[in-house]
Amino acid sequence: MSTPLEKWVQEQAELTQPKSIHWCDGSEEEARWIIKRGIEEENINGNPVFYRLNQDLWPNAYLHRSHPTDVSRTEHLTYVCHPDKETAGPTNNWMEPEKAKNMLRQLFNGCMKGRTMYVLPYMMGHPDSPFAKACVQITDISYVVASMRIMTRMGKKAIEKIGNSNNFVRGLHSVGDFNPERRFIMHFPDENLVWSIGSGYGGNALLGKKCFSLRIASYLGYKQAWLAEHMVIIGIQDPQGNITYITAAMPSACGKTNLAMMESGLEGYKIWTLGDDIAWLNIGPDGRLYAINPEIGFFGVVPGTSSKTNPNMIKTLKGRNFYPTLFTNTALNLDTNEPWWEGYDTPCGNNMVDWQGKPWDISSKTPAAHPNSRFTVSIYNTPTLSKEFDNPYGVPISAIIFGVRRTNCIPLVTEAFSWKHGVFMGARCGSETTAAAEQKVGVLRRDPMAMLPFCGYNMADYFRHWLLMGTRIKNPPRIFCVNWFRKDENGQFLWPGFGENIRVLKWMLDRISNRIGGKETPIGIVPMPQDIETSGINISSEKMEKLLNINKQEWQQEIKEIKNFLDTFGTRLPPEIWQEYQKLYNQLQ
Ligand code: SAT
Ligand code: MN
């Protein structure tokens, strides 16, 4: 008698018709074998899946070049297939589940002919955590196997958890023929099921990440009274040695990874890393909100990463790794066999190829590394890893930050008046787009709680769920909004960012412990300019004023855009959100 898992795998094999099936055990030996297969046997567009990098300078590191059309998330090809369109809401692409399945069944039919089907059992969350989920992904490419082993707890534990039950999250993935015309990422939340074809890129293909841990999980959270969020988790240690845990939501490629392992620019303060992308938030036995990171790796943006901007990430990448480290779509120095990217510590070499393997030099008009090139690396390698990282219950959260990338309008930091006001603050967030998704970069769009591409159901219901969670949590976390990216009239960043962001976090800690006041404005509480510690950085009081300024004209435009966005939800939008909107509107007049 076969188990439900074996039966499901058998059915997928009948559909996709692979040459062979390999069940992954997550072992180190297997990881070496997978990399070897990627180097010697599998190819993309005629090129090997992996290139071995200089193992002395970059231990256990490999370069992957993706298909040139497959370098970022494809939001227009991503669907959330609830039985009815209303449940998906106005911010998601929707297709009727049976229609989606019929369409994709044709694409999956025979798509693994001549290839190996890999079966990946994995846990999202620590296996001992009451919040963890057992999952299985099927894929047909070594890159995804190697990446999933870095990002998730893969292996026998998951099979044991599933046992004879039907209770596991299913993901079927194939790179297909990489044709963007035949690329789809389809979610079936009612069945805890994801089907993805035509892409090998992170968020499209590592189904434990955005597909399950955010889109499917956010809907599970809605039904089960918890939250799945696009958030960093960190501990901030103060000079007395107290550690305060916070989470921070920011859109893709807006500095979450840098924040997660920041080297503090303030004496006596230190950041402990728990996660850089996803937080699952549950109410603990004491009624407080607790966060776990369901992942165990970083899939971070490479360009701009250096010993200056993120020294701990450079240490993480160069460290001696039990898990391999993958670089995707960086440039390559052919003389030294090292990866290279714009913004790295050293200038480029004399003998370079770009992310596609084409000759490149400093006079080239195109970037050497793709703007969305990525590293995939184990969190256990980071020198700032929190000792609570593997705590199955997670850490208690004292503050939640919503971060945006905005050239103007949004002050460096604002604190919400209340949980309800904070939910509105998150809901009204707009941010300028980045290279993390296939889209025009730098365009302002609404991105509530940095979840626009990741919320697996109607965001009006999502806001209601957030409001309700606030009434269930004892001592709900304080809510803040930050913008590290405000610029002056000459287009220069006003705030130094990176390690100096600790100065803003310090203000938050002082607010949480009622050590400091603030100024009430129509949009929330902002610091008095002198309340942000600026000793040791060269920032004038005039700049500080500009960073914290609320420009009425800019806000007139902003509030129009907020209203247009909220209107798209019709009568489903919770009245509390409209009340907060109306308050803001009145105060800005
Ligand atoms: O590609 S991912 O979705 O994993 C990264 C991101 O865009 O946040
Ligand atoms: Mn992300």
Task: Give a written overview of the molecule.
With 589 residues, the protein is α+β, with helices and mostly antiparallel strands. Helix content is 28%, strand content 23%. It contains 16 helices and 32 strands. Residues 230, 252, 277 line the site of manganese (II) ion (MN).
Characteristic key phrases:
alpha+beta, 9-stranded mixed sheet, 8-stranded mixed sheet, 28% helix, binds sulfoacetic acid, binds manganese (II) ion
Q: What small molecules does this complex bind?
A: sulfoacetic acid, manganese (II) ion
Query: How does the helix and strand content classify structurally?
Result: alpha+beta
What is the number of helical segments per DSSP (H or I, 4+ residues)?
16
Terminal residue distance = 71 Å
Low-confidence stretches: none
Number of strands: 32
Round the Cα radius of gyration to an integer and report it.
23 Å
Main beta sheet strand tally, sense and closure: 9 strands, mixed
- Percent of residues in beta strands: 15-25%
- What is the arithmetic mean of pLDDT? 97
Helical residue percent? Answer: 25-40%
Which overall shape is indicated by the principal axes computed on the Cα atoms? globular
